Structure formats: structure tokens, C-alpha cells
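About this split. The held-out portion is used to measure sequence recovery: a designer receives only the C-alpha cells and must propose an amino acid at every position. Recovery is the fraction of positions where the proposal matches the reference. Here is one held-out target exactly as it appears in the evaluation file.
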């Protein structure tokens, strides 16, 4: 059976961080076998607010590719490709724009909820001044990260209960989170350091991924042109 296709990616404005791992990279690792996955190094999109510094965008194509490989993305199972080298994407965007209204675009939840999520993410419980004070779990960014990364959910439930009762300081909770994140990040950091010494390999991954993605996007464009009944040579 044909595998479902996933097209996703990241803007090449800087190295990825732990939020990317929680929000998308873990799922991308999970889908490598069950889906035909394309990871877009979105350098063209990154220019929207970086036209004054194209060197930054160009440099971070390699940096984001290194992050993908370091976290465990397998280029034999997942295609890594730069957006700027896939001209069919721009042509497909022009065709698809004919079917997207402004009201439909405004219903996109990411447009409404982003940069707000970024502001709220850093707040902890301002009333938890002393360890003996009862603390609030909801909206506490430390516990949000623990929910995402702590595999000992039973132990975490006990910590939450103690925090809410009072008697547990923020420092101990943060120490638990730090240990968990360090354990998670250490092998990724090590693989990235090794891969960064072999830039030729990373470039080869991008070149081979570009060739695969270009063939696929061109075929998709031909299908769309035919489906729309447009003139074909």
C-alpha cells in the first residue's frame, strides 16, 4: 500500500531547540516508517523577515539539517530538502491560492495563537514565593515541560500533589526537569558534534533529498494542472 505523505519543516533562522523536539521532532521520528515524509528546510519562507541578512538564512540551512540528523532523522527514510530548490512549490502555491479565501486563512489557529503562546510560556506561579506555600500547576512552564518529557508519570503526579499542597520549592522541581532534559539532550548533542565535522555528508544528504523532492513536487504540479484543466504542452 502507498504510504501517506507528510510535508513539514522549519524556517532556517537558527538551530532548533527543545521546544521543536517536544512540538514536532518526536512525531517526525515516529512517522519515519509509517509515512513518506519530507522535511522542508524553509529558507525561502525565512527570508520574509530576514531579507536584510540572507547570509543568516543560508548558514542555517546546514544548521537545521544537522539538528535533524542529530536527533535521529534518517535520510534514507525521510527526505530533507531546501525550499528554495523546489520551484514547483512556488507554482503550486499560486494554483492553490485560487481556492483559499481570506476568511479561511483567518481561521488558521496558528495565526491567532502564536508569537501569545510565546509570551505566556515563560510565566511560573508568581504566588509561590516560599517552598511551604501552595503552588499552582496550571500555567506553570516547568510543569508543562515535565508533562512533555518526564516518563515517570506516577512520580510526577506525586510531585504535583506535593507542590499544590505546599512544601516543595521551585528549585527542586527545576532540578528534576534539568536532569531529565540533560539526559535527553546529551546523545543528541554528541551526534551533532560528530556530524558537524563531516559537512560533506550533510551536503550530500541535502542534495539527494532535493533530487527526490524535486521529482515528487514536479509530478504533483503536473497532476494539479491536469486536474484544473489548464493548458498543457
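Reference sequence for scoring:
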Amino acid at each position: 500500500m502507498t504510504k501517506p505523505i507528510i510535508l513539514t519543516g522549519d524556517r532556517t533562522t537558527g538551530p532548533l531547540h527543545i521546544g521543536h523536539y517536544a512540538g514536532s521532532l518526536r512525531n517526525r521520528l515516529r512517522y519515519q516508517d509509517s509515512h513518506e515524509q519530507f522535511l522542508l528546510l524553509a529558507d525561502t519562507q525565512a527570508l520574509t523577515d530576514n531579507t536584510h541578512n540572507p547570509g543568516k538564512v543560508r548558514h542555517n540551512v546546514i544548521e537545521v539539517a544537522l539538528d535533524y540528523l542529530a536527533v535521529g532523522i534518517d535520510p534514507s527514510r525521510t527526505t530533507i530538502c531546501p525550499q528554495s530548490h523546489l520551484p514547483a512549490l512556488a507554482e503550486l502555491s499560486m494554483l492553490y491560492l485560487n481556492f483559499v479565501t481570506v476568511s479561511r486563512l483567518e481561521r488558521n489557529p496558528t495565526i491567532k495563537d502564536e508569537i501569545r503562546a510565546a509570551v505566556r510560556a515563560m510565566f511560573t506561579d508568581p504566588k509561590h514565593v516560599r517552598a511551604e506555600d501552595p503552588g499552582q500547576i496550571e500555567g506553570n512552564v516547568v510543569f508543562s515541560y515535565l508533562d512533555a518529557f518526564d516518563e515517570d508519570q506516577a512520580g510526577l503526579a506525586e510531585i504535583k500533589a506535593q507542590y499544590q499542597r505546599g512544601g516543595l520549592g521551585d528549585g527542586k522541581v527545576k532540578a528534576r526537569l534539568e536532569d531529565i532534559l540533560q539526559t535527553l539532550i546529551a546523545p543528541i548533542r554528541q551526534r551533532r558534534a560528530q556530524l558537524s565535522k563531516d559537512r560533506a555528508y550533510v551536503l550530500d544528504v541535502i542534495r539527494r533529498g532535493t533530487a527526490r523532492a524535486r521529482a515528487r513536487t514536479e509530478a504533483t504540479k503536473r497532476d494539479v494542472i491536469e486536474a484544473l484543466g489548464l493548458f498543457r504542452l
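Annotator remark: The domain at 5-116+186-228 is CATH 3.40.50.620 (Rossmann fold).
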